[in-house]
Specification:
mainly alpha; about 60% helix
């Protein structure tokens, strides 16, 4: 019983694609091309989902537009270029490495370096601010206070 329940939940946990049946192309080869291209295109509303995975209205429009371009005879590169010209490089899940996209590519590294530098400074300041050893007078006074407290 538990195994069946577990299998049921695992089957329900599979990703749900947002491509509607009325969006799919009748030609299986064209549909396969559309799916392959869609895997490279980001939903600009959801940001980290492909247009096939997103149920946003704009993702729907992008799926329809892509399929229209493929039915019109565009190559994969032409269809991608058409969408990029309309929405910019941000629509690509892997934007090209260009001056305009340097921050997209190098931003995570810069944040990591800044965090590491901050951590080094923090640890140095903490180490340099260590409590100095007690003088002989302070140690004698501490011993006296501890003896009084114990009594």
């Amino acid at each position: 019983m538990k195994t069946r329940l577990l299998l049921t939940f695992l089957l329900l946990a599979t990703p749900a694609f947002a491509v509607l049946p009325n969006e799919q192309l009748a030609d299986p080869r064209l549909e396969a091309r559309a799916r392959a291209i869609s895997a490279e295109l980001r939903c600009v509303v959801c940001q980290n989902q492909t247009i096939d995975d997103s149920d946003a209205e704009l993702a729907h429009d992008l799926r329809v537009l892509l399929r229209q371009r493929l039915k019109a005879g565009d190559t994969d590169q032409q269809a991608i270029a058409f969408i990029v010209n309309r929405y910019g490089d941000y629509v690509l899940l892997r934007p090209p490495f260009e001056p305009e996209t340097l921050l997209l590519w190098l931003g995570p590294l810069l944040v990591l370096l800044a965090g590491g530098t901050g951590l080094v400074f923090y640890l140095r300041r903490r180490r340099d601010g260590a409590v100095p050893a007690l003088t002989a007078d302070e140690q004698a006074r501490l011993d006296r206070l501890l003896k009084e407290d114990a009594a």
